[in-house]
């Protein structure tokens, strides 16, 4: 019992330290007119030393915040992980500036914040980080979950003119259970080493198109890990539940399953750490 209490105290202290280091920031997306871009908000978590590599994080369709309006547990825990590895972290909020709170209950074809919008957000985030004196401009990466994972794919695909034309490009990229169909159909030509982490039984963003996308790249072929028995949102301790309010997925109108898988969560965390060490 004492050991558990000690661990709880240490965890609380770590989160408190992380919270005290966060900086609310704003920066322009590449979205919008040149003289009137969309101005995004986000949180910057500084590493212990500078200049340091940085990673920009992109939330899923539910947004960057929890029901209380605080930055979500997933965002905070990964920010803590990356800070501990010596990386600055930028959490990018793509929704608030566009007067949206979530996209999950909107049909894919009718979403008011599109992947084109979010791709331009990612390019703006890279440029913002590259301009900071405390960031190593040559070592900026991207990571995203679900809809944010799709953002990572889009923002690293040289088949998009704006990605090919960008002055600053990411040095590495990680996508958790992204929707891969759009960039598979377009053709995927990566601008950076990419790691995809997907669940074998995901019925929201299925793994098969991501496997096909990884195989389709002829240069700098993406790495992909498919976790057996894992579904959407496997990197959490949340129980698996059926979300009937989601109109998209493998079986439109029947809902999608979302929830954690302890084995996949542990393995994916370890794989992310190794990937960052490699790049």
CATH H-level homologous superfamily name: Alpha/Beta hydrolase fold, catalytic domain
Unreliably modeled segments: 1-20
What is the succession of H and E elements?
Answer: HEEEHEHEHHEHEHEEEH
CATH topology: Rossmann fold
Number of helices: 8
* Number of spatially distinct domains: 1
- Total strands: 10
Q: What is the helix fraction of residues, given as a range?
A: 25-40%
Shape: globular
Could you outline the blueprint of secondary structure elements for this entry?
Layout: H1 2-21, E1 22-33, E2 36-45, E3 52-58, H2 73-84, E4 88-93, H3 115-130, E5 135-145, H4 147-155, H5 161-165, E6 172-176, H6 181-186, E7 194-199, H7 208-216, E8 223-227, E9 241-243, E10 256-258, H8 262-278
Helix pairs in contact: 3-4
Using brief descriptors, characterize the structure shown.
eight-stranded mixed beta sheet, two-stranded antiparallel ribbon, 10 strands, Rossmann fold, disordered N terminus
Structural account:
The chain has 279 residues and is of the alpha/beta class. The protein has a single domain (2-278), classed as Rossmann fold. The protein is built from 8 helices and 10 strands. The protein has helices at 2-21, 73-84, 115-130, 147-155, 161-165, 181-186, 208-216, 262-278; strands spanning 22-33, 36-45, 52-58, 88-93, 135-145, 172-176, 194-199, 223-227, 241-243, 256-258. The strands form 2 sheets. The protein has an 8-stranded mixed beta sheet with strand order 1-2-4-3-5-6-7-8, sandwiched between helices. Strand 7, helix 7 and strand 8 (223-227) form a beta-alpha-beta unit. The radius of gyration is 18 Å and the shape is globular. The termini are far apart.
